[in-house]
Amino acid sequence: MTINFDTLKASLVLYGLNAIYAILLLAIGWYLSGAMQRFVTRLLSVTHRVDPLVTLFVGSLARYGVLAVVGIAVLQLFGIQTASLVAVLGATSLAIGLALQGTLSNLAAGVMLLLFRPFHIGDEVEVAGKAGKVRSLSLFMTELVAPDNTQILLPNGQVWGAAIINRSAYPGTGEVKVTFPVRAGAANALAGEILKGLRDDPRIAEGGTPSVNVSKVIATDPATPVVELTVSAKVKPSDADAVKQRVLDHASALLAAA
């Protein structure tokens, strides 16, 4: 068998040039995908009629769309026909679907979150055991910012499949109730101290006047009677946990001192 070195050399040069063109095309496509995402995001942000969550999602979709077109162009550069590629992918779609079922479920969940929009950018939410402020929604991930400025990335499948607590859905006030047992003799004095401390909290002052009262009797032993003290206050939903913790800390300190 005789090897035609001229033909081999020409083939190597051709495929080498195609490889260089493919690398350049991928680099240009990567840059254009980012530019397209920024352009779409800026265009939708100018209108002020599109929800920021939709803006980020559509921008991410535009980026991946450009990358898909570039990928097809690279395949065609090497002589791979898209029709045959679609046929091969169709024949192996079941295997690919099983292998990527987690990724595909995240994509589908992202579309559902975009359609129903249970939360918006900036909302205080608690989902899948994580709490924070919504920062963005992409095709596959939901990004939250924790109160300590920590980034939380949640797969969309977990977000859509879990209970979502949105503390910013209703901008009005919520109610915080804290109950704890105290000795009957110290109930009045303790209630006055707790009430005095809560009135100095601006988060409670904005929501309404707090109240402290005896809700029920726990133990009727004449030697050591015990009653249940209930503290209630109107606060913003986003401040509910912080105010509740403050009430517990303040009450614990007063009980320890007593």
Automatic annotation (TrEMBL):
Coiled-coil features, chain-numbered ranges: none
Record-annotated Mechanosensitive ion channel MscS domain positions: 103-168
Main location group: membrane
Superkingdom of origin: Bacteria
Pfam families with a match to the protein in the record: MS_channel_1st (PF21088), MS_channel_1st_1 (PF05552), MS_channel_2nd (PF00924)
GO molecular function: mechanosensitive monoatomic ion channel activity
Transmembrane segments: 12-32, 53-79, 85-116
Membrane topology of this protein: Multi-pass membrane protein
Matches recorded under Gene3D superfamilies: 1.10.287.1260, 2.30.30.60
InterPro entries the UniProt entry points to: LSM_dom_sf, MS_channel_1st, MSC_TM_helix, MscS_archaea/bacteria_type, MscS_beta-dom_sf, MscS_channel_2nd, MscS_channel_TM-2
Positions of the Mechanosensitive ion channel transmembrane helices 2/3 domain: 61-101
Keyword field: Cell inner membrane, Cell membrane, Ion channel, Ion transport, Membrane, Transmembrane, Transmembrane helix, Transport
Subunit annotation: Homoheptamer.
PANTHER family: SMALL-CONDUCTANCE MECHANOSENSITIVE CHANNEL
Protein family per UniProt: Belongs to the MscS (TC 1.A.23) family.
Function of the molecule: Mechanosensitive channel that participates in the regulation of osmotic pressure changes within the cell, opening in response to stretch forces in the membrane lipid bilayer, without the need for other proteins. Contributes to normal resistance to hypoosmotic shock. Forms an ion channel of 1.0 nanosiemens conductance with a slight preference for anions.
UniProt name for this protein: Small-conductance mechanosensitive channel
